[in-house]
Design a protein that fits this description.
Length: about 130
């Protein structure tokens, strides 16, 4: 069985799950009392949308950038879980989705390159 057929659906599931979770958190589950909802959405959702096109088109570099970007959500989720008891459950869900996103994107990119289907192989330039 092709390993990327497992990692890619997991990456897309966790990507869209984290995107929906952050939108729901900022607008419905626990809106901020200190910042406008629009600012909260721009700060938490907009970074995820930067790699949307590449994620949908199965580009290796977009998956790698999404994995790097998910570390910000891991950091946010762990700090919120530690510092804010009233949003601990919300933070743990964010943390779980962000970790799943990191692992699935990283393994998808790795397995795709190892299988020879990715753009990161060395190119023969005639030297």
């Amino acid at each position: 069985m092709n390993r990327t057929r497992i990692a890619r659906p997991l990456a897309l599931f966790s990507y869209f799950g984290l995107l929906a979770w952050m939108m729901a958190w900022a607008t419905w589950l626990h809106p901020s009392r200190h910042f406008p909802v629009a600012l909260d959405l721009v700060v938490t959702v907009l970074p995820l949308t930067l790699t949307l096109f590449g994620m949908l088109h199965a580009r290796v570099r977009s998956h790698l950038w999404t994995a790097y970007l998910s570390m910000l959500y891991v950091l946010h989720g762990s700090v919120e879980a530690w510092a804010s008891p009233e949003t601990r459950l919300l933070s743990l869900v964010e943390l779980g989705l962000a970790l799943l996103l990191f692992l699935s994107c990283a393994y998808y990119a790795r397995w795709r390159v190892l299988d020879g289907n990715g753009p990161l192989e060395t190119r023969d330039n005639g030297e």
